[in-house]
Every structure is written in C-alpha cells, then in structure tokens.
Amino acid sequence: MHDLIDELRAALPPVFLGARVDDLTGGAICWATTQNRRSRREIPDECFVRAGPRVLVRRDPFLAWWATTLREVRDATTPIVRPPGRTKKVAAAERTPTNSKVVDQTPSAAPPNAVVEYILPDDAPDADYAPEKKPRPHRNGARRRTAAAGGAR
Fold it and tell me: Strand 48-51 and strand 118-119: pairing?
C-alpha cells in the first residue's frame, strides 16, 4: 500500500490544479468525487489551497488523507462472505398487474415456471387501446395553436 503512495508522491507535483487530478492519477482519483467529499468535510481543509477561482491540491497532506481511504482488495486469510439473498416474499396479488385478478392465488396451485392466466374485469381497457390525448394547456394557461385551430405558421 505504501508503494502506491510513494509512486504517486514521485509522479505528482507538490501543488497541482485540482481539476487535473483525474489526468495526473490516471483516473485513480476522481475530482468530482473529491469535490463532493470536500463539501461534506470528509477531506481536511489543509489539503487544498485557493488561487483565485481555482482550487489547488497540496500533494503530501492529500496523499496522507487518501492513504487512509485505501484497503487491500482481498486478504487471503479472510473468507469471502456474500450478503444473504432477498428473503422477503411478495404475495401473489401484489405481483399481478394493477387492474387484473388472479385466477388462483394459492402458491401450490401451479409450478414455479407455469404461465398464470389473468381475468380482466369488464371495465378494464384493452392493452391495444390507447385513449386519445388531449392537448395540455401552456404554462401560462394559454392554449397552444394547432393546425386544426387555424394557428399554423
């Protein structure tokens, strides 16, 4: 881990423009993320210097802070622990479309890969049917001109 910090210390100038941190580090440190962390006060103020509108980064304090955020990818002695899968079961009625009814809601009624049939209520619109859209009023309440209304230009 210290080798990486030493390599960056050798490659970076003592003070550099913050907006160039992406280029100077080969994308290892992202300036946008650095700015977000800086605004949340996660990075000490001593790492930065202002030169007019530009933010300069002081190499040594910044790398000292950045080293605290690093960790090894995988330790050979640590077992891999995967998070448990999602165990919340959703009721069959909640998985159906909004305006439909389930023929049979018992979980043992159909195998897991079976096709479930739905019966639509009489007042449900067909899937192919789309109602005609009405023109929305303009922001200020005025109606829009349309070719049918004689307002085409």
Answer: unpaired
